[in-house]
């Protein structure tokens, strides 16, 4: 029996028992699909984080107000960290040599109204430096200026989500909106940044106003939530962090009082890189678990082929009796194992790609399937088919034709 003739015989054999063949492939289909979906989710998250790092930049620190640990005999509510003020932001720029710019921020959630429409958004009071430090340019219109801030003018930039909710397809520039109960003129629309992965939600559902306006006319506050700090470069981050900690501890008299920090300094790129590592670990873990599914699929093929060999003893004996050699029988059953594994891998690949596409299309998750993972999944299916087919094929090839015919 020639090698080329084994293929149609194997195909016909599998098609005669469609349900059995489908059950043999099921484990591989599920295993490959799960691998691709989990990898797509993990890789999508990784790409989002890398994109966020690019948007944040690798030269930024975030100084945030935090709560101090209460001292014995003192009321906790009196120790809330409200000491991060605008003067701290000015001092960081003036006294820390590695710092280029700062953008102080005070934020709150407010109801934004325009005519009969309204939406809930995050209002950020900040300075014009926010545009460079946070890489948040205006897509249309202009940013408020230092003069606007010094004069506490009621001007605002809106995010694309706010613009869509309030103005539909209209041009918001020059319109009057109400932030809470305070009227503001819209002077710009921020470029879209999408959903943040650092816990700040939709970055387009924001309204930016001058910080003096926010603190005096809108929020009635005298302290900041955080200060975004732009350093002179990636290599200056550590030095800048050390200088900022020393400066603020001195300004807040924490050393004299022997108190813990009432602020924190974070390297956002470092935090996000940790998330990349977590995404890689998640992908590896899930891929390992899905590999178990692939192994189970290989066991399924092995079991089905053993049953097939047992049921086709007479056929094997007859073919050997009319001249088929052991290697012809071996080749036929190996072809059947390979067909099952390749078909299972292909169906699993299509199912996994469709599922990954559906998740990315109909949810907020970003998905991405690397080409190499598709190749690895198909390659693993092929290897499993070969491994699972060796024992049943060898068992069939070593049958004695006389004993096989008698068993039938």
Overview of the molecule:
This protein is of the alpha+beta class and 408 residues long. It has 2 domains: 3-52 and 273-407, no CATH class; 67-261, no CATH class. Helices cover 57% and strands 17% of the residues. It is built from 14 helices and 10 strands. It has helices at 3-16, 18-56, 86-95, 130-133, 146-150, 160-167, 211-218, 237-251, 254-257, 268-311, 313-321, 326-362, 371-397, 401-407, and strands at residues 60-65, 99-114, 117-126, 138-141, 155-158, 176-179, 182-190, 206-210, 226-231, 263-267. A 6-stranded mixed β-barrel has the order 2-3-8-5-7-6. Strand 2 (99-114) and strand 3 (117-126) form a beta hairpin. The longest helix has 44 residues, at 268-311. The radius of gyration is 33 Å and the shape is elongated. It starts with a helix and ends with a helix. Mean pLDDT is 82; it is low at 76-80.
């Amino acid at each position: 029996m020639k090698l080329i003739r084994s293929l149609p015989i194997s195909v016909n054999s599998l098609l005669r028992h469609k349900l059995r063949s489908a059950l043999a492939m099921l484990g591989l289909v599920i295993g490959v699909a799960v691998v691709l979906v989990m990898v797509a989710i993990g890789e999508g998250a990784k790409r989002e984080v890398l994109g966020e790092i690019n948007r944040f930049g690798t030269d930024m620190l975030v100084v945030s107000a935090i709560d101090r640990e209460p001292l014995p005999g003192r009321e906790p509510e009196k120790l809330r960290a409200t000491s991060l003020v605008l003067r701290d932001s000015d001092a960081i720029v003036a006294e820390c040599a590695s710092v280029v710019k700062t953008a102080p921020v005070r934020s709150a959630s407010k109801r934004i109204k325009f005519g009969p429409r309204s939406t809930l958004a995050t209002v950020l009071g900040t300075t014009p430096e926010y545009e460079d430090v946070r890489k948040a340019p205006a897509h249309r219109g202009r940013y408020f200026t230092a003069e606007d801030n010094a004069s506490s003018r009621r001007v605002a930039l809106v995010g694309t989500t706010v613009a869509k909710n309030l103005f539909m397809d209209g041009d918001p520039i020059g319109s009057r909106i109400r932030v809470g109960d305070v009227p503001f003129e819209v002077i710009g629309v921020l470029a879209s940044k999408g959903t943040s992965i650092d816990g700040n939600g939709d970055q387009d559902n924001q309204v930016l106003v001058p910080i003096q306006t926010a603190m005096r006319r809108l929020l009635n506050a005298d302290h900041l939530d955080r200060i975004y700090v732009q350093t002179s470069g990636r290599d200056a981050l550590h030095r800048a962090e050390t200088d900022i900690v020393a400066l603020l501890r001195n300004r807040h008299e924490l050393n004299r009082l022997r108190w813990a920090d009432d602020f924190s300094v974070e390297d956002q790129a470092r935090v996000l890189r940790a998330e990349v590592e977590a995404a890689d670990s998640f992908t590896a873990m899930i891929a390992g678990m899905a590999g178990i599914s692939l192994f189970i699929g290989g066991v399924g093929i092995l079991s089905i082929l053993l049953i097939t060999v047992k049921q086709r003893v007479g056929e094997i004996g007859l073919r050997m009796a009319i001249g088929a050699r052991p290697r012809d029988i071996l080749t036929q059953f190996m072809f059947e194992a390979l067909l099952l594994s390749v078909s299972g891998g292909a169906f699993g690949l299509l199912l996994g790609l469709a599922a990954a596409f559906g998740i990315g299309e109909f949810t907020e998750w970003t998905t991405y399937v690397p080409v190499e993972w598709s190749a690895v999944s198909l390659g693993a299916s092929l290897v499993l088919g070969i491994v699972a087919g060796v024992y049943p094929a060898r068992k069939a090839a070593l049958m004695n034709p006389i004993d096989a015919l008698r068993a039938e």
